[in-house]
Amino acid sequence: MSDKYRIWDQTKCYFLTLTVVGWIDIFTHNNYKFIIIDALGYCIKEKGLEIYGYCIMSSHIHLIARATGKITLSEILRDFKKFTSKAIIKRIINKQESRREWMLKF
User: Is the pTM of this model over 0.85?
Assistant: First the structure.
């Protein structure tokens, strides 16, 4: 990872961009957006994430956020990405998705 994208001070506020693998436009469907929104709510309530703003784009998410508790911002982001990726893959497998096979290859 480039030093340019490293979180140096875990207590500071950062502008973050989280991208979908292959820039797949997954967030054009609301059911995938709701996974993100619910997970952000959980991180706020349970992990000390403080969000100043966010924007869910078709293939990525922008956040302005910081960590306020004992859990570092890096740890919160790691857990958030791990949970949401698994939840989205599960949704792709279990629900009607016209691009299922193509998406799962990524």
Answer: yes
